[in-house]
Amino acid sequence: MQIDIISVVPGLLESPFAHSIMKRANDKGLLQVNVINLRDHTTYSRAQVDDYPFGGGAGMVMMIEPLVNAIESLQAKTTYDEIIFLTPDGKTFDQKMANQLSLQQNLLLICGHYKGIDQRVRDHFITKEISIGDYVLSGGELAAAVLTDAIGRLLPGVLNDETSALSDSFQDNLLAPPVYSRPETFRGWKVPEVLLSGNHKLIDNWRHDQSVLRTQERRPDLLQED
């Protein structure tokens, strides 16, 4: 899979993809992440990519020309399954969406900044608008890192144990059950006996029951979804 990210501040994305699972995905050739500096695609002086909004008001707007230049330059080399704008008013990102996007081959993510991007870019180029939550960040870079991580870890071969992702929270609309490791007893706090039994059927049943219970307590809305 290839994920290209257009950013005004590409340095913000250096660390998230240089370590841990995302680095291993890249080293294995399973996920290629390219960060494109929007300022390399502007024709304005001082690498300008923003200007005042028509109609007045506070804040600045990312101009149409640099964004279109960047998008079309990338499209000349890559056919994208989705061109995604990361914005607070987009559809809320969830595990189901991550699963769907992980089946694609090429994604282009556009990180917003300032008061957003010129609406004409959204009208003519964007195929999907995504939010990672009901709050506002300084820019879309952190959201892009969240999407890339959530999608990339689902690619076959990225995780050492490919079944691990299947038991994550939100798969099957359930939160993950409690987990334990060594030692069996610490300060008198014991691991549930069923996990030490070696009976995998009992363990699976216990984990499922715990997932349902935790979901009922913390996110009952998930149990009401189709």
Descriptive account of the structure:
- The strands form three sheets. A five-stranded parallel beta sheet has the order 2-1-6-5-7, with helices on both faces. Strands 3-4 form a two-stranded antiparallel ribbon.
- The model has no long low-confidence stretch (mean pLDDT 93).
- It has two domains: 2-152, Alpha/beta knot; 169-223, tRNA(m1g37)methyltransferase, domain 2 (Trp Operon Repressor, Chain A, Orthogonal Bundle).
- Strand 5, helix 3 (95-101) and strand 6 (106-111) form a beta-alpha-beta unit.
- It is 30% helix and 18% strand.
- The protein is built from seven helices and nine strands, in the order βαβββαβαβαβαββαα.
- The two termini are 29 Å apart.
- By secondary structure, it is an alpha/beta fold.
Task: Looking at this protein, list some descriptive labels.
2 domains, 9 strands, 18% strand, Alpha/beta knot, 226 residues, alpha/beta, 30% helix, Trp Operon Repressor, Chain A
Topology record:
Blueprint: E1 2-7, H1 20-27, E2 32-37, E3 50-51, E4 61-62, H2 64-75, E5 82-92, H3 95-101, E6 106-111, H4 119-124, E7 128-131, H5 141-152, E8 185-186, E9 189-190, H6 200-218, H7 220-223
